[in-house]
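A reminder from the course coordinator: this example appears on the midterm review sheet, so study it carefully.

Given structure:
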């Protein structure tokens, strides 16, 4: 493991590749029938924040005969390293090569991740195109919202799963296990899997094109099955959900517990694909949510709880649920957030509950600037409601409101753009007179007509028109002292092409990847010039895919059903032009979308007045004003922990302490935090057997017992070696440590005159050293850092008052910073001031040398 970790040290965020997280599964391969790779075509910190992948990971690993492991798209520096080493892309759990799995399932959340999917196949040495794979290659399956039109990927995938995956993924694994038991070949396996409801096989459909480029026909291989229908989970409350979340050791986009409180939305916003493909509304009972939240918070150690749905404010029991969660967890300083709130669902009571948590910005989504255009899109809110909500939000202490709009919506005119300016200015005006005032940030993205929506026939505005409207908005908002955040027009153009595309785009994807495209959704990596070259090379006209479509035109996704008939979407498109509203089914009037069978598949709402079971009451602890208890721990940081940064080390210790329910003492103030003291940061890549951490408690706890329990909660690579009590008046670890001893193992890079160099360094009055960092030259004198230098049979010994052992080793050995980090340096011991020397009989937690001096 040491060698593999050393190889990661020169990468950006190497913690992406180590695995070993709390909550991860590590199964004995001897009893496994099906190996399933859950692949996410983006980086670790994005994929780890995706709740759908976490749900499938838990469901699959619940079965002892399935091993589900994770793989994420490596960042370009890691991808280049793998290619240079000739090493394959592997999973995090067992480091199994991706091509050795039975199934590789990609979650498709965004069209601009398609190049990453091909890139991952390349890194795994799996043939890109389906027809070039052999019997031993894994089956490639995709799911997620983009699977409702996977045609641009049709030549690269074996299967697509439409709809909810909780039940279907297990059926797929069971069918594959049976197929293997029967000795079936690849074609027979696909035939078996293709019979599962919701599974689409692109190779069974033949697409013919007319002379003008439009689709002439989509012909099924089995005429009796002309349509593939999506899968539904009828009862979300009964569906499995992770109770022991995966807890990353590095910082991710969302470091929190996320609970899906509802699936589906019936507001009927005509631009919103998610609002149609996730129907009908299915809510979890509030009592189920509180139980899931309590368990997940306990097993994760997170301080944030997020209630997820397409519109969390519409949840039937949102106010009693929030009140209950606040009552249960406020004493543990848990912040509860609702990331998706609709203006029409914001009651005063709801806003009052939200204000009890940490406030940053409050996001509202009017979508369109004018009342007329909001009628076109069936948004169902009026400006007065938005203004009233904004006034309340500012009065309750928020300082920032973010407004989200789209440009390029069907029938948009200049007056609608002016409406964005007027509405944003009116919202900002409501902050006048409130304490501290308030600000408004305006965000505008380009409307992309998505499949399976009423606007799927409408066109997308051109690149040039997008730029013109964005420039006008920037200037008009600036005159009101407001700022605009916008989505890159080129990204929206490509999103529109692939969202509405057909199989002919496979050649474009391959060409783009060959030209070096990847991570296209990341601004720093997007190369539109390469995409322009690929479009030219493949003779593809973007306007052909962005154009309006006729109602009678065959759409590329015509043979894939989200459960809502095309006629309903056509009717809604016509109602949009007539400014006719379509009511929310939640109000009791069925909109006639056709998705429900009114038996098993129907709207399922939570009880609006839930009867919560009272949680066990923890006896209150009476604290004296000066009751403070402090433990000092000595920890090891080795193996996979080498690549974890100091900030991430501090975070994972805090989460481990919360999991063990340590009675932590908190600071005072608006944002209280646990009173923990860490030493100076250990350089990334340096191991340690002597990291000192102080923890303040509100009640006493036996040091040995505390250390043992904390060890049970720490991830791989971290361990408590010793623990003892110290006085609350003892100086912090950084102030208590006089010097630290490091060992550099014998290495062929050691120069033959190293002993002489050590003597010269010790007798010198200064030891100048410089290195390059972010384009700057950093200089310092290392001599004041050095207490002693020795060379013996085991290696080089560095005793330092302070500073980095990497810099000292690099200076003495004439190495650069990169080479010095790979030497295997380890902190062996620390030397305390006389007042901080540990007492005799310190509790040794593990049968290892404690390294205390």
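Designed residues:
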């Amino acid at each position: 493991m040491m060698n593999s970790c050393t190889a990661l040290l020169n990468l950006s965020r190497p913690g992406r590749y180590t695995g070993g997280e709390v909550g991860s599964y590590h199964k004995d391969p001897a009893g496994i029938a099906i190996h399933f790779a859950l692949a996410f075509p983006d980086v670790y910190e994005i994929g780890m924040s995706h709740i759908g992948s976490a749900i499938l990971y838990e469901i699959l690993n619940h079965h002892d005969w399935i091993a589900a492991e994770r793989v994420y798209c490596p960042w370009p520096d890691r991808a280049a390293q793998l290619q240079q080493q000739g090493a394959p892309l592997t999973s995090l759990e067992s480091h199994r090569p991706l091509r050795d799995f039975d199934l590789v399932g990609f979650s498709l959340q965004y069209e601009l991740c398609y190049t990453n999917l091909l890139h991952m196949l390349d890194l795994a040495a799996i043939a890109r195109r389906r027809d070039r794979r052999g019997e031993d290659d894994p089956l490639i399956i995709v799911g997620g919202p983009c699977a409702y039109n996977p045609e641009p990927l049709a030549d690269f995938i074996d299967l697509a799963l439409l709809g909810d995956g909780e039940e279907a993924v297990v059926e797929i694994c069971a069918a594959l296990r049976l197929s293997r038991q029967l000795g079936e070949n690849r074609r027979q396996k696909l035939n078996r899997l293709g019979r599962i409801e919701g599974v689409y096989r692109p190779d069974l459909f033949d697409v013919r094109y007319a002379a003008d480029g439009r689709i002439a026909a989509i012909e099924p291989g089995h005429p009796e099955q002309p349509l593939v229908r999506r899968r539904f989970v009828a009862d979300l409350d009964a569906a499995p959900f992770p109770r022991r979340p995966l807890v990353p050791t590095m910082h991710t986009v969302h470091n929190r517990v996320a609970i899906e409180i509802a699936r589906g939305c019936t507001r009927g916003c005509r631009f919103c694909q998610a609002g149609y493909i996730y129907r009908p509304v299915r809510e979890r009972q509030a009592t189920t949510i509180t139980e899931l939240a309590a368990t997940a918070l306990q097993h994760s150690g997170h301080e944030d709880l997020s209630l997820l749905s397409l519109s969390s404010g519409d949840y039937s029991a949102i106010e009693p649920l929030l009140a209950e969660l606040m009552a249960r967890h406020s004493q543990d300083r848990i912040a509860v957030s609702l990331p998706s709130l609709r203006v029409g669902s914001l009651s005063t009571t709801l806003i009052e509950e939200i204000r009890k948590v940490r406030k940053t910005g409050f996001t509202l989504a009017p979508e369109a600037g004018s009342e007329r255009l909001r009628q076109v899109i069936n948004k169902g809110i009026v400006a007065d409601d938005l203004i009233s909500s904004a006034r309340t939000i500012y009065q309750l202490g928020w300082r920032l409101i973010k407004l989200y709009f789209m440009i390029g919506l069907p029938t948009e005119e200049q007056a609608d753009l002016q409406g964005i300016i007027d509405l944003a200015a009116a919202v900002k005006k409501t902050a006048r007179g409130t304490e501290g005032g308030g600000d408004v940030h305006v965000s505008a993205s380009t409307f992309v007509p998505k499949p399976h929506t009423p606007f799927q026939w409408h066109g997308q505005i051109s690149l040039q028109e997008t730029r013109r409207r964005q420039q006008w908005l920037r200037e008009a908002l600036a005159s009101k002292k407001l700022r605009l955040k916008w989505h890159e027009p080129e990204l929206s153009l490509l999103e529109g092409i692939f969202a509405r595309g057909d199989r002919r785009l496979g050649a474009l994807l391959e060409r783009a990847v060959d030209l070096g495209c990847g991570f296209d959704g990341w601004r720093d990596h997007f190369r539109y010039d390469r995409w322009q070259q690929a479009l030219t090379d493949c003779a593809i006209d973007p306007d052909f895919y962005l154009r309006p479509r006729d109602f009678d035109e065959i759409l590329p996704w015509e043979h894939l059903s989200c459960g809502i008939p095309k006629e309903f979407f056509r009717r809604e498109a016509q109602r949009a032009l007539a400014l006719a509203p379509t009511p929310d089914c939640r109000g009791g009037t069925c909109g006639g979308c056709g998705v429900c069978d009114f038996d098993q598949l129907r709207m399922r709402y939570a009880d609006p007045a839930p009867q919560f079971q009272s949680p066990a009451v923890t006896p209150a602890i009476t604290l004296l004003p000066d009751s403070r208890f402090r433990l000092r721990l000595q920890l090891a940081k080795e193996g996979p922990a080498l690549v974890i940064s100091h900030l991430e080390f501090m975070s994972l210790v805090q989460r481990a302490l919360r999991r063990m329910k340590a009675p932590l003492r908190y600071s005072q103030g608006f944002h209280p935090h646990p009173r923990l003291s860490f030493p100076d940061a250990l350089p990334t890549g340096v191991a340690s057997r002597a990291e000192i951490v102080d923890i303040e408690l509100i009640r006493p706890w036996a040091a040995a017992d505390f250390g043992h329990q904390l060890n049970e909660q720490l991830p791989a690579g971290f361990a408590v070696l010793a623990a003892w009590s110290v006085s609350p008046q003892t100086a912090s670890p950084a102030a208590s440590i006089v010097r630290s001893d490091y060992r550099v193992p014998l290495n062929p890079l050691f120069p033959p005159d190293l002993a002489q160099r050590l003597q010269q360094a010790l007798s010198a009055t200064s030891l100048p050293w410089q290195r390059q960092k972010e384009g700057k030259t950093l200089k310092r004198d290392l001599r004041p850092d050095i207490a002693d230098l020795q060379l013996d049979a085991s290696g080089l010994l560095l005793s330092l008052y302070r500073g980095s052992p990497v810099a000292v080793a690099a200076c003495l050995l004439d190495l650069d910073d990169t080479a010095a980090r790979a030497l295997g340096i380890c902190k062996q011991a620390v030397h305390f001031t006389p007042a901080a020397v540990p007492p005799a009989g310190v509790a040794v937690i593990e049968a290892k040398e404690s390294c205390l001096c």
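Residues 414-429 form the longest helix (16 residues). Residues 847-853 have pLDDT under 50 and may be disordered.
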